[in-house]
Amino acid sequence: MDLTALTPVQRSLWSRVEELWQLGIAQDPEPVRRALHPDYCGWVTGTDAPHDRAAAVASVGPGSPRILGHRLEPLAVSVFEDMVGVVHYRYEADVETTAGAGRSVTGRWSEVYLRRNGEWTMISVSGGPDGER
To answer: How far apart are CA 99 and CA 42, in angstroms?
Structure first.
């Protein structure tokens, strides 16, 4: 996907995706909590049921595996009526294991955002690591 072809609003949405990955790397739960809608609901591939905001925040907090590096490949960035954004992308992340070594994880996410007062708030996500489907 050619990011230079995105509209300014689409670019702001993609920037939000990149920003949320940086928040995950920092493992600071409070900015992540603020970035998610209070009624957020997501579903990670391979799990039995959707999860709520608290579970999403915990998944990137200090007790979660540390992300050592990552690469994102946007596949589609859509904005509807300047209010709702949908992003589909692939990722590759180097994640620290419990033994302290790194391992590479690939996967894909579909994320839905609500834009209020010029800021994108995540309302839903679906996807996860490859091989979990």
So the answer is: 29
Residue span of the structural domain in which 80 resides: 3-129
Q: What is the pTM of this model?
A: 0.92
Do 71 and 87 form a contact (C-beta atoms < 8 A)?
no
Q: Give the C-alpha separation, 133 to 125, whole Å.
A: 15
Radius of gyration of the chain, Cα coordinates, nearest whole angstrom: 15
* Residue range 30-89, pLDDT digits in tens: 999 999 999 999 999 999 999 999 999 999 988 888 899 999 999 999 999 999 999 999
Instruction: Report the number of distinct structural domains present in the chain.
Output: 1
Measure the CA–CA gap between 15 and 22, rounded to whole angstroms.
11
Residue 52's contacts (CB-CB under 8 Å, 6 or more residues apart) are: 40, 41
Q: Report the CATH number at residue 77.
A: 3.10.450.50
Whether the per-residue pLDDT at 133 is higher than 60: the answer is no
